[in-house]
Design goal:
Oligomer: single chain
Distance between the termini: 146 Å
Helix content: 25-40%
Shape: rod-shaped
Number of domains: 4
């Protein structure tokens, strides 16, 4: 028993060491995951409003407004902070400035929003809205509905959020003022491609239907060729004839349509001899050989 005790103790220590080593390895993995940039940060750039709306939505009820820029909104529990050296509001987790965080790791206070560049700062809009840098009035961005005609010169550029989901470009639905706007890429696309729809429809036809349509196309093509051939033959046959009136020779005899040029006929001897290759001009009565 005493002989086995050191062995048991040694095995126990080895087991504990292995378990501790395994847990230490797992803890290292978790530490790396926690280093994800801004993953736990609760602040960011605020939500801008439209030119006609100055009321913050329920998802961002904290209003940022000092009369120097267009009003914006922060999520509940965050603070509207006007950082020193930045002419814009930021949503910070405390009343202290979070300028370093929002400028080095730009993202919206709510990463479901789309973030837009504003030349040194950013602003955010809800999905499906246009980010606009106003030309007149107060500075700071505005968010307009997707069906609002907006000059391309006023559209803000979409920006990639750090630590947040990459948003679909919204600025690409730029429209000239007064021109019907295009479909917003961040909304369901209702435009259709007619050629693509036709191909997609045909691909879903049954085999029998495809064969029937193919046979009909071939038959129609054959009929077209036959009709075209008949028309071409008729035109060739009538190329040197005038229909609709009778022609007579100098003796008053009716000239049968034989396919020769109008006004001419082969010379026929009246004495029953063999005709030569002389042709009579019926109009003038001249004879040429």
């Amino acid at each position: 028993m005493f002989f086995n005790y050191p062995i048991s103790l040694t095995l126990g220590v080895a087991y504990v060491s292995a378990v501790v080593g395994a847990k230490a390895f797992i803890a290292a993995d978790r530490a790396i995951q926690q280093l994800n940039p801004r993953a736990e940060y609760q602040g960011g750039w605020p939500l801008a409003l439209s030119a006609l709306n100055t009321t913050c939505p329920a998802e961002a009820p904290v209003q940022c407004n000092n009369g120097e820029v267009n009003p914006s909104c922060c999520p509940a529990g965050q603070f509207c902070v006007w950082p020193s050296g930045l002419f814009a509001f930021a949503c910070c987790p405390t009343a202290d400035s979070c300028l370093v965080a929002v400028t080095n790791f730009p993202r919206c206070a709510n990463t479901s929003w789309n973030m837009f560049d504003q030349g040194g700062s950013y602003f955010c809009c809800e999905p499906g809205q246009l980010g606009v840098n106003p030309k007149t009035g107060l500075p700071d961005g505005l968010c307009e509905p997707a069906d609002q005609p907006v000059p391309t010169s006023l559209l803000a550029s979409i920006a990639t959020q750090i630590g947040g989901a990459t948003a679909t470009s919204v600025a690409s639905n730029a429209t000239q003022a007064g021109v019907p706007n295009q479909t917003n890429p961040s909304l369901p696309n209702t435009s259709t491609d007619s050629s693509g729809n036709v191909i997609n429809t045909i691909s879903h036809w049954s085999l029998g239907r495809k064969i029937g349509v193919g046979a009909a196309v071939v038959i129609a093509f054959v009929i077209f060729l036959v009709v075209a051939s008949l028309i071409r033959r008729r035109r060739a046959r009538l190329a040197y004839q005038y229909e609709g009136f009778n022609q007579y020779d100098e003796y008053g005899n009716l000239i049968q349509q034989t396919g020769y040029r109008p006004g001419y006929e082969p010379y026929r001897r009246t004495d029953g001899g063999t005709a030569n290759n002389v042709t009579v001009n019926v109009v003038h009565g001249d004879q040429s050989s």
